[in-house]
Amino acid sequence: MGCLRSGFLLCVFFLLCLESKALEQSRTAAAHAGLCQTRPTDLIFIVDSSRSVRPSEFEQVKIFLSKVIETLDVGPNATRVGVVNYASAVKNEVSLKTYRNKATLLRAVAKIEPLSTGTMTGLAIQFAMNVAFSEAEGARVRSQGVSKVAIIVTDGRPQDNVKDVSARARDAGIELYAIGVGRVDMNTLKQIASEPLEEHVDYVESYGFIEKLTKKFQEAFCVSDLCATGDHDCEQICISTPGSYKCACNDGFTLQEDGKTCSACTSSTDVVFLIDGSKSVRPENFELVKKFINQIVDKLDVDHNKAQVGLVQYSSSVRQEFPLGRFSSKKDLKDAVKKMSYMEKGTMTGQALQYLISNSFNPSHGARPGVPKVGIVFTDGRSQDYIGDAAKKAKEHGFKMYAVGVGNAVEDELKEIASEPVADHYFYTADFKTINQIAKKLHVKVCEEENPCECESIVKFQKKVDDAIQQVMKKLDAVTKRIAALENKIV
Hints:
Elements lengths: L1 H31 L4 E2 L2 E8 L6 H16 L8 E8 L3 E5 L7 H9 L10 H12 L14 E8 L8 H9 L2 E8 L4 H7 L4 H4 E4 L9 H8 E2 L2 H4 L7 E5 L2 E5 L5 E2 L6 E2 L5 E8 L6 H17 L7 E8 L3 E5 L7 H9 L10 H12 L12 E7 L8 H9 L3 E7 L4 H7 L4 H4 E4 L5 H7 L16 H33 L1
Parallel strand pairs: 2-3, 2-5, 5-6, 6-7, 13-14, 13-16, 16-17, 17-18
Antiparallel strand pairs: 1-8, 3-4, 9-10, 11-12, 14-15
Helix pairs in contact: 1-17, 2-3, 2-8, 4-5, 10-11, 10-16, 12-13
């Protein structure tokens, strides 16, 4: 049977590898076709048109600008684009507020003429910071989640200082890219650009090669819809977020700790703590026990429709501190635990277990029919009464029982209380000061994990694998069609 399972898993693994490769091709094709969305950005091109830039070369710069713009999602609520033209003076050719669609923006860029004087790069960056990125010119200075980006293109050594003004611009939240052409001073580019420099500084030998940088900026501004491309590992529902995604589950399922897979198990649980308050515990240790309880509570999703918590303290007698469902928030629940007073006296664990069975998990005490029941028993010593019958009866009723012992607790008694597998439901430490470590390890689980090696589960396991293969094949078919469509658009 192990071979059968291995064969299925290898098949799934192979198909998933094929899917991964196909999705990568799909994502690359989408980027080349300009199909990805761009995150909301206020983008300013700062373009050197000094006398060293020949008219034909300036035309190549405009082609570069146009190709980058063509890949952007241009609009009032998406990417706004401006262009600052500079030489010895600075000219605001295109304001962020002026052109609200791609077609009119491209026509405006095509009409820009070179200024053909000196190279005042620092002045141009200062102008962009003070004017082009101002609210009056259309920048969204008060908007959350809108990036401020400037792309500076220059081919010479500036005639003014760029270091200080660039630092101020970066401090103002503007991301600076520096593109150098020909005999540009590389140190100047490094003084301008944001960190990391390897991502924000580019150099080309001549304006004839600047167009090659289009892809880099397309990818820099592109935010792929990973849910739409299928490039995610959510088991059921994928929810797109900017540049990322998060997983969710269908009704009746719960998202697991890995944030990807879903379980049909409900998060609704009735949890009752059965706490030893005998005199051997001592007051200072009883405070540590209360902290232990609240550490467990912190892990639960406390709510009337989810996890309900009850608390019972026992010594020579049994006292219900509060029943299931009395508190619907962690804060109120933890406050009630902190207020619990110490009983002292003896250790009647068997009597406490019987109370749990007869009362705590009874609907009259807030228990919900059909909801998994979990008992967490804490003790520091040997029980003064017989626990065997009550411990057995609790498990026969379907209660999941955890046993936690400290100090003089008898491990055989703890194991008798604990559910199977005992190793997962029984905990012991010699010192009260270390019970917080038990709280970190104790995870309340109400769903049984299937063992595909058991004979009775082989049919279910095989069906799961078959379903997984079918899902992969459907994804592969969808991806193949998507790639074909994208290739047709590229051609």
